[in-house]
Amino acid sequence: MDGIDLALVRSDGSNFVERGPDGFVAYKDETRQRIEEGLSVAKSIANRRMRPGALALLERELTELHHLAIREFLSANDLSMSEIDLIGFHGHTVLHKPDDALTVQLGDGQYLAAQTGIEVMYDFRANDMEYGGQGAPLVPVYHSALHHNISSQYSRKNPIVFANIGGISNITYIGTEGQLIAFDSGPGNCLIDQWVKEKAGLDFDENGAIAQEGRVIEEICTRYLAHPYFQRSLPKSLDRKDFSPLLDTNVTTADGARSLTRLTALALMFSIDQLPDKPALIIVCGGGALNPVIMQDLRALAQQDNIQVITADEASFSSAAMEAEAFAYLAIRSKTGEPLTYPMTTNCRLPVTGGVSALPTIARENLKSA
How many angstroms separate the CA atoms of 332 and 203, rounded? Predict the structure, then answer.
């Protein structure tokens, strides 16, 4: 809920990927507050088209903010709207219940297409669920493409795992023969963020500064790792609400942050044990790659199995921009009808494409009649 990530990608939707500039536009505090409130309202949604309460207004606000962010991004990089073929617009997930085949992302693709004059691909997850999939994770097919563009010093390290540590962590396993397996591995930053927000009024533990002052309380880690999700068979996915916030009143702010940071690393390495083979290399991306305490714990745990851990930046990729790049890439695959998900990434019955196209002319007509 921190803001909007943007990235420019040129690709054939297969293994050719040319990465361009990226950017970030932070949400104002009042927007973050409305999103937080929207998450509670979204619990009442029974149909993915429903927008109860203030969600319809929030959806328009978020879409307009994306429109303005695109304009600012292109201007900052001396680009015009006419130079862009497609926009991949994920929107903001406010509800994800894979067991009920229900996922809701706030974002009006038709409106964004009308405002920018560019074709928009959006609503990426729903079709996967129509074919029995979990609707997540979607980034693995992009990880697979990046695997073909990895810097030469790491190119012979197989198998490889991409570990994306956002609110929820997910991993992509790419086997020696290109086998693709992906699933959500457990809490990423969400529990840490909730804890420091409650205890210190901070949105996140920047650079792991609070965690560095604390000690690991093993009982906290053990309690979370007893969650039944970790015993479920692959593939599988999570909603950020699946793990309850830490409520221990007798734990200091620093000890709580340190314990939850350790949990993030433990959960990821626990999930590594569910793969067919141990990877030789783990490439970490997402916000977790910027937390030195998470990286320290991951490296220490992985070293026990002789696994090297590096950040996406060390692999000549971008930790911060990877998800934004992924949805640009997925927009291209969606346009060409190539699969976005596979049975061993989301548990869909067969490889399926996804996404909905919003054309500028159609969008304008819809807006006029609204």
Answer: 34
Q: What's 306's DSSP letter? A: T
Is pLDDT above 50 for 368?
Answer: no
Same domain, residue pair 74 and 104: yes
Query: Is 268 contained in some domain?
Result: yes
Contact status, residue 237 vs residue 98, Cβ threshold 8 Å: yes
pLDDT of res. 35: 96
Please state whether the predicted TM-score (pTM) of the whole model is above 0.90: no
Same domain assignment for residues 186 and 115: no
Q: Please, what is the average pLDDT of the chain?
A: 93
The total number of structural domains that make up the chain: 2
Containing structural domain, residue 206:
151-311
Instruction: List pLDDT tens digits, range 192-247.
Output: 999 999 999 998 999 999 999 999 999 999 999 999 999 998 888 887 788 999 99
Question: Does residue 343 contact residue 351 with C-beta atoms inside 8 Å?
Answer: yes
Beta strand segments in the chain, E: 3-11, 17-26, 86-89, 92-97, 102-106, 119-122, 160-165, 168-174, 180-187, 281-285, 308-311, 356-358
322 close to 200: Cβ distance less than 8 angstroms: no
145 domain residue, yes or no: no
* Structure tokens, 132: 């029995």
Residue 326, in any domain of the structure: no
332 φ/ψ angles, rounded to the nearest 5 degrees: -65, -45
The reply to whether 240 and 297 lie within a common domain is: yes
In a domain, 261, yes or no: yes
CATH number of residue 199's parent domain = 3.30.420.40
Q: Which residues pair with 92 in a beta bridge?
A: 106
Q: Are residues 236 and 163 in the same domain?
A: yes
Residue 139 exposure: Cα atoms within 13 Å on the Cβ side: 26
